Amino acid sequence: MELKSNHASPVLNPLNKPRLPAKYVTIPRKKPGKLDDVLSNGWLDAMRSSSPPCKKFIMHVNVEVPSDDCDNAYSSWMLKYPSALKSFDHITKNAKNKKIAIFLDYDGTLSPIVDDPDRAFMSSAMRSAVRNVAKYFPTAIISGRSRDKVYELVGLTELSYAGSHGMDIFSPVSDLASDEHPNCIKSTDQQGKVVNLFQPAREFIPMIDEVFRTLVENTNGIKGAKVENHKFCASVHYRNVDEKSWPTIAQRVHDILKGYPRLRLTHGRKVLEIRPVIDWNKGKAVEFLLESLGLSDREDVLPIYIGDDKTDEDAFKVVREGNRGYGILVSSVPKESNAFYSLRGTSEVKKFLKTLVKWKKQLEVADRHSK
Fold it and tell me: What is the DSSP letter of 171?
């Protein structure tokens, strides 16, 4: 079993202390009982659902499903979630006279899903596409990884970064935005520039550290399991664990969480994530970043959020409310979502970003010629 702690925060130099404590919401916990385990609470079903349907069917039935069947199912699904590439003209038509803001997940969106999370590198072509997008549009990465780790992987200073599902946000200071947000402090980046640092779950750091160590001890011996500390949340990866051992790993995580009523579990793609019970998620992070950029409560702003995971659904909801923007789900298999459009994989994400830059350049040239 491997473990990984992404705890260092070398870019933070706080200039003032947070003003208000984090706001909590009460999430009812099940009363203990004979069936209060990973079978009755649906954990195993959720874990299995993170496998692509066609692949899972092959695995359980031990037969090959014709690729045409998968393609037909995907084509039918795209009637509800059209391709963002094929719908590009419609997107840009609605973006006319509006300022586009881009929000991107990392794993499965900018980089492929791989067996080893530490090797989920984005290609140089993708990095170039993201860099060019950031030249023309406010751009932010919102990841479940620690903010320091995702910054290390992306390596672009032109962006805003939100790690730990939005519980650790690094954003620019704007003259148009209010600086009175709870838990927001001034900090400096590596270039000495003053920025906003927002960490609503700061008081949970010692608890997450404790749970991380306990998870490492209790999953030791489960081949393929990997535990990571993302500073404000912890994750247990089971992508490389034999499915026969999934009930074991789930039960051990379940038993540990019973002792921490202020923590909760969420499911990602082949990962169990332990997070604080606070009213915060990627959707809240989008709202905070829009506010930090001076783009909130404006009808001339069109946010676009691109992501592939269950944790991105909160962000899809936020950008969809009131038809303010578009959520784009990255998926090669049909699944329900709050997104409006879809892209089949990271290659299509790169193509969409490049197409967006090309459209913006053409728009600027046309504007110059019209003057």
Answer: E
* Per-residue confidence band for 180, with pLDDT thresholds at 50, 70 and 90: low
Contacts of residue 370, Cβ cutoff 8 Å, sequence gap at least 6: none
Q: 52, 74 in Cβ contact below 8 A? A: no
Q: How many Cβ atoms are within 10 Å of 211's Cβ, its own excluded?
A: 22
- Helix (H, G, I), strand (E, B), or coil: what is residue 80? coil
Please state, in angstroms and rounded to a whole number, the distance separating the CA atoms of residues 141 and 139. 7
125-156 residues labelled b (16+ CB within 10 A) or e (exposed):
ebbebbbbbbebbbbbbbbbbbbbbbbebbee
- Look up the pTM and report it: 0.82
Tell me how far apart the alpha carbons of residues 217 and 236 are, in angstroms, rounded to a whole number: 12
Beta strands in 60-201, from DSSP E residues, in sequence order: 99-104, 139-142, 160-163, 168-172, 184-188, 194-198
Phi and psi at residue 201, to the nearest 5°: -115, 30
pLDDT of residue 329: 98
Cα 94 to the center of its chain, rounded Å: 25
Residue 200, SS3 per DSSP = coil
Residue 101 CA to residue 84 CA, distance in Å, equals 16
**DSSP E strands, the chain:** 2-5, 99-104, 139-142, 160-163, 168-172, 184-188, 194-198, 226-229, 234-237, 263-268, 271-276, 301-307, 326-330, 341-343
H-helix or E-strand containing 130?
A: helix 124-136
Q: Which two tokens stand for residue 330?
A: 């990255």
Tokens of 368: 């110059």
Q: Which residue has the higher pLDDT, 71 or 68?
A: 71
